Amino acid sequence: MKPRVDYTLYLCTDRELMSEDTLEKSVELAIQGGVTVVQLREKDCSGREFLQVAREVKQITDAYEIPLIINDRIDIAMAVDADGVHLGQSDIPAHTARELLGPDKIIGVSAYNKELAVEAQKEGADYLGVGDIFGTSTKAGTHHVEIDTLSRICQAVKIPVVAIGGINLSNVTKLAGTGIQGTAVISAIIASKNITEAATKMLSLLKNEVIVNSPKA
Amino acid sequence: MKPRVDYTLYLCTDRELMSEDTLEKSVELAIQGGVTVVQLREKDCSGREFLQVAREVKQITDAYEIPLIINDRIDIAMAVDADGVHLGQSDIPAHTARELLGPDKIIGVSAYNKELAVEAQKEGADYLGVGDIFGTSTKAGTHHVEIDTLSRICQAVKIPVVAIGGINLSNVTKLAGTGIQGTAVISAIIASKNITEAATKMLSLLKNEVIVNSPKA
After folding, report:
1. Cα separation of B174 and B137, whole Å?
2. Which of A45, A212, B187, B210 could anchor a disulfide with A49, C-beta 3.0 to 4.6 Å?
3. Which of A48, A51, A96 is opposite residue B51, by nearest beta carbon?
C-alpha cells in the first residue's frame, strides 16, 4: 500500500551546502527537528556513489519512519527500496516511472505552471514540487514562480503541492493561504549551524501560520 | 531466457561523433554493415531525452533482431525493455543491477585490469568491456590497457571479453590472438562517411584475422 506522506517540512539534500560532516548526520539532525519527508538529490555524483549514499540515508529515514524520496534515478530508488522518486521536467516521465515502480510508490513531479501541474496529476503524480518561489542558486535551469501562480496551481489540482525555492524562516509565512501542503527546504536547514533548531522553527511556522488547509486525500 | 549475443562487432553510439543526421539512421546503417550488438551511450543528456532516443533506437535494433544494451541507466533499460545494460566502475554494481533486471538480461561491466575482470565475473557480469586499448578521446577518465593485459584478462575469465578504445581498421589486427570475442567500435564506424562500408570492412577483418577462438559458452 502507498504510504501516507506528511509533506509539511520536506527536506531536500545538497551535500555542497551542508554544515555537518556527513549527509546521514545532517539528515538525522533535521529529522530530530521535525522534518517529515526527505528527498535525496545528488546531481553531481556517479551512480555508484549515489547508491551508497542512498543506502546510508535510508538507514536513518527507516529508523525514524520518515519517507525517503530519490531524485531522478528510478533504478537507485528501486535498489534501495525507497518510498518514491521525484522527477523534474527533463527526467523520465511520471507514467513511465509508474510502470517501473508500481502502484505503491510515491511519484513527485516538478511543475512551474498550471499546465504542467495538471498534466503531472493526469500522468499519476502523487504530489507536485512547485517553484522556484523565492529564487535559489542551488539548482540550475529553474523557473521563477509567483505566489499567485502557486495559489492557482493549488486550486487546479487535487494532489498535494509542495512549494520549493529559497524558502527560509524569514519568507515562509508569505506562503500562508496559498493552499500548499508543505514546503521543501534545502539550505535553510542543511546549511544551518544548528540543523535541528532550524527544522524545529520552520516546522512551527509552517504548522501555526502557513499550512491552514486540511490535508488533501 | 537470456539472449545469446554475438559480440564480434559491438557498436557504441556517440551522437557528437556521428556523421549521419540521426542516431537511429547511423545505427541502422551500421547494422546493415554487420554490427552484431549495439550499446546506447548517452552521457550528456537528460533522462527524458535518453529514454526517447532509446525508444527510437530500440525500434531499429528490434527490426534487425540485434541486441540493444543501455549504458549506465538501468531504469531506462527497463523502461524500453532493452536486452541489457553496460556498467562502468563508477556505475551501479553488477550484483545490484542483477537484482533489478533479473536473470534474463545481459549485464556488461567495464574492467581495465585482471582483478576488476575477475570481480565482475564473480558479481554476475555476462561479458566484459576491456580498455582503453588504443587511446580514445571519446570518454573521460579511461585507463590505458596494454594488449598483454587484455590477453591475460581473456585467460583469467570465462565470460566473453570485448576490447574497446580507439579500435579502427588500421589497428584491429593487432588484437589477433588475444582471446577476445569482439571489439567495441565508436568513431571508426559512427564518424565514417560511409557507415555501412566501415562496419562491413571491420567485421571482415574481425572474422578473418582477429576472432580465432571459438565463442565462449
Report:
1. 20
2. A45
3. A96
> Which residues in chain B touch residue A100, judged by CB atoms under 8 angstroms apart?
75, 78-79
Contact A1, A20 (CB under 8 A): no
Residue with cell 564506424: B189
Across the interface, whether the CB atoms of B49 and A75 are under 8 A apart is answered no
pLDDT at B217: 45
Tens-digit pLDDT profile for residues A193-217: 999 999 999 999 999 999 866 555 4
Mean pLDDT score of chain A, rounded to an integer?
93
Nearest to A54 by CA among A37, A65, A43, A69: A69
Determine the residue type at B85. V
Q: Does B176 contact A at CB distance below 8 Å? A: no
Q: Please tell me which residue in B58, B73, B105, B110 is annotated as part of the active site.
A: B110
What element of type H or E holds A108? Answer: strand A106-111
Q: What is the DSSP letter of A125?
A: -
For the stretch B174-196, pLDDT in tens is: 999 999 999 999 999 999 999 99
Distance of alpha carbon B68 from alpha carbon B134, whole angstroms:
25
Specify whether the CB–CB gap between A184 and A14 falls below 8 A. no
User: For A96-154, how does the pLDDT look when each residue is reduced to its tens digit (9 = 90+)?
Assistant: 999 999 999 999 999 999 999 999 999 999 999 999 999 865 556 678 999 999 999 99
Q: Give yes or no for A116 touching B (CB within 8 A).
A: no
Determine which one of A41, A58, A105, A201 is catalytic.
A41
Distance CA B124, CA A132 (A): 44
Q: Of all residues in chain A, what percent are helix, strand and coil, respectively (each to 5)?
A: 40, 15, 45
